Every structure is written in structure tokens, then in C-alpha cells.
Amino acid sequence: MKLNEIADKPGARKSRMRVGRGIGSGKGKTGGRGGKGQTARTGVAIKGFEGGQMPLHRRLPKRGFNNIFALTLCEVNLGRLQAAVDKGRLDPNAVIDVTALVQAGVLRRARDGVRLLGNGADTLTSKLQLEVYGASASAVAAVEKLGGTVKVLAPRKETGEQAG
Residue 164: is its pLDDT beyond 60? Predict the structure, then answer.
């Protein structure tokens, strides 16, 4: 094979259709745009238009809202942490925080923080020192049962009377 013999497979490149070039071309006169009217013209954008009938997206009720203050937390179970310690990716003697989990490959990216969950607590055998944004009660209990610590970085929620 030589460089001048290289070619696409037959049918790989489709030749351009020349629109509006006579009746014999098959795309003459209206050029594939149908009859007259708004849609035959250029610059028409009637994506949700239903001929004057109330469009579907306006007939359906609005529901919910988008919380702009919501945090996107990464969830990590205790079983995943123990598996990473067993593989030698996490050092059980060092403080385990978001950056340590990303470097160990337990998380792909940090996002807004880590929430520790208690799934796999029965497999946990290492004494861990954790710094996470949030943690479930069962996860904290399982870590502290083995002598480890969990430092929760999230601000405490106020549980008193409202100022008024």
C-alpha cells in the first residue's frame, strides 16, 4: 500500500445535496421545505409551538425548586475505607481527610466534602482518625468503638428557640 492509494471505504463520504437546482434534482422548487408559510422562511424557531394551543411545557404544573445553597457531598462507607487500608492505599495512623481519600483513589474528586456512612461497619478493623464534613451516628459509633476519632467539620445546627 502506498500513500496515494489510501482512500475511504465506499460510502464513507456522502456527497452534498444541492438544494433548489431544478425539478430533475429531486430537491428543486421548494427545496425540501414543503409549502409556503412561516416554516418555509429562514430564521424560524418554533420548538414548543403547538399552533396557538397552550404548549405542553406551560400546561404542566411547576413543581419543586432548586436549592442554590445545597452542598454536593461525596458519600463514603466504612467498608470502602477498610478495603483501602487493607490494600495499603490509606495509612490508618495518619489523619484521613478529603485530600487523602482522593489521593488513595477512594474518591474521584473532592466536591463540597465527604459524608461518612456506616455501611460495612462490621468489616472495620482499623483504628482510624477521620476528618469529614458529616457523618452518620452509626458510622461515628463504629469508628469510636475501635478507639478511632471522627471530627465533623460541618457547622452545628442550632436547636433552640427562634429569635423573634
Answer: no
- Using DSSP, state whether 122 is helix, strand or coil: helix
Residue whose entry in the numeric block shows the C-alpha cell 481527610? 97
d(CA 124, CA 118): 10
SS (H, E, C) 47-108: CCCECCECCHHHHCCCCCCCCCCCCCCEEEEHHHHHHHHHCCCCCCCCEECHHHHHHHCCCC
Residues whose CB falls within 8 Å of the CB of residue 23, separated by 6 or more in sequence, listed in order: 29
The one-letter amino acid at 93: N
pLDDT tens digits, residue range 65-76? 999 999 999 999
| pTM for this model (two decimals) | 0.62
Fold adopted by 74-152: Ribosomal Protein L15; Chain: K; domain 2 (3.100.10)
pLDDT tens digits for range 1-11: 899 999 999 99
Region of residue 20 (phi > 0: left; psi between -120 and 50: alpha; otherwise: beta): left
State how far the Cα of 23 lies from the Cα of 131, in Å rounded to an integer.
75
